[in-house]
Amino acid sequence: MPSVAARVLPLASLRFRAHEPETLLRVEDGPHGFLMERLRAGRLDLAVGRMGPPATMAGISFTPLYSEQVAFVVRAGHPLSGERRLAALRDHLVIYPTERAAIRPLVDRLFIAEGVAGLAHRIESVSGDYGRGLTRASDAVWIISQSVVAGDIASGLLEQLPIETGITAGPVGVMTRAEEEASPAAQLFRRALGEAVRALGFNT
């Protein structure tokens, strides 16, 4: 899923390839619901990302890797730089997670808890490329998992607003078909994911 594709998966892929150079690794990304459908159908060996709502997790086993929360990010020099109030977003274009995104119910809950509703200017997307491009080219505010934009924030290309998002914290982990033994290659890739998480210093 997008929250993993930016940092954890590249490092895990390199570690896996170091041990299994002859094994073909195929990587797909997409929203939670799409990946769960492909996982259940046997089109994927495993999925990595946020745990979804209970209805989407039927027949799926989840093993946590680390915990993260969402971030509100803007371009450098944005008019809202340093803004702590969620209500300040009402008059700005907001890139909001789609209905099928695992973080959507958490973000909805945050807005409800803060009494903020009816964003007049909203585009729904969880595409990293789209969100990054629109945010850097405009005054849009992007709501996305922290790990997706950690590199952009560290490099100064994007800035995280100091809005409290603790209510959105949740586990990121590995999802597999329940009661199905993983192949040796899939088991090795899971170990590579754990090594990548530890190397990146995520909260486990």
In short:
With 204 residues, this protein is α/β, with parallel strands linked by helices. Helix content is 35%, strand content 20%. The chain contains 7 helices and 8 strands.
In words, what does this structure look like?
The two termini are 18 Å apart. α2 (8-19) crosses α7. Strands 5-4-6-3-7 form a five-stranded mixed beta sheet. It has a three-stranded antiparallel beta sheet with strand order 1-8-2, with helices on both faces. The chain has helices at 2-5, 8-19, 32-40, 104-113, 128-137, 146-155, 184-200; strands at residues 47-50, 60-68, 70-75, 94-96, 122-124, 141-145, 158-160, 170-177. It is of the alpha/beta class and 204 residues long.
What descriptors fit this protein?
globular, 7 helices, 3-stranded antiparallel beta sheet, D-Maltodextrin-Binding Protein, domain 2, alpha/beta, 204 residues
- Gyration radius from CA atoms, angstroms: 17 Å
Specify the CATH class of the largest domain. Answer: Alpha Beta
**In terms of structural class, how would the helical and strand content be classed?**
alpha/beta
What overall form do the CA principal axes indicate? globular
Biggest sheet statistics: 5 strands, mixed
* Uncertain runs: none
Task: Reconstruct the topology from this structure.
Layout: H1 2-5, H2 8-19, H3 32-40, E1 47-50, E2 60-68, E3 70-75, E4 94-96, H4 104-113, E5 122-124, H5 128-137, E6 141-145, H6 146-155, E7 158-160, E8 170-177, H7 184-200
Parallel strand pairs: 4-5, 4-6
Antiparallel strand pairs: 1-8, 2-8, 3-6, 3-7
Helix pairs in contact: 2-7
